[in-house]
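Quick one, tokens below:
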């Protein structure tokens, strides 16, 4: 409770001999010296809780009460990666290069290239490969440890 203005607030921070408060439920911050603060009475605390919590009739309304409970989403999206067609040499070649570009094993410089890996996925998705989406290297990627 700020004794200089008779306002109740929540302490947000302390900095250089001042305490910074905000009204219950949010609002504009103000500063006060620590010696000008006191603990709120039971009545003042109850009044502050009334300001910051939704009323019983509003809480039952689907449009104006507390927000809906959070939706739990998976940490990773399901794999939407195209699967190479069995028996297709172009798909197998693109799949080998996609793996090489993602891991860096098999590329000339040893670095990963996720853009090129995505291009390989597009080539696999373009089966039966007419017209070709990208020009993959002719040779298979070199396997490195």
């Amino acid at each position: 409770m700020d004794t200089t203005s008779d306002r109740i607030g929540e302490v947000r921070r302390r900095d250089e001999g001042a305490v910074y408060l905000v009204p219950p439920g949010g609002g504009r911050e103000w500063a006060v010296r620590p010696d000008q603060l006191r603990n709120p009475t039971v009545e003042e605390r109850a009044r502050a809780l009334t300001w910051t919590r939704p009323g019983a009739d509003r809480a039952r309304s689907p449009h104006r009460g507390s927000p809906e409970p959070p939706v739990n989403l998976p940490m990773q999206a399901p794999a939407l990666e195209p699967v190479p067609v069995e028996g297709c040499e172009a798909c197998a070649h693109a799949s080998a290069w996609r793996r090489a570009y993602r891991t860096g094993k098999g590329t000339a410089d040893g670095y990963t290239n996720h853009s090129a890996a995505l291009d390989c996925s597009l080539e696999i998705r373009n089966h039966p490969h007419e017209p070709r989406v990208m020009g993959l290297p002719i040779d298979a990627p070199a396997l490195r440890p």
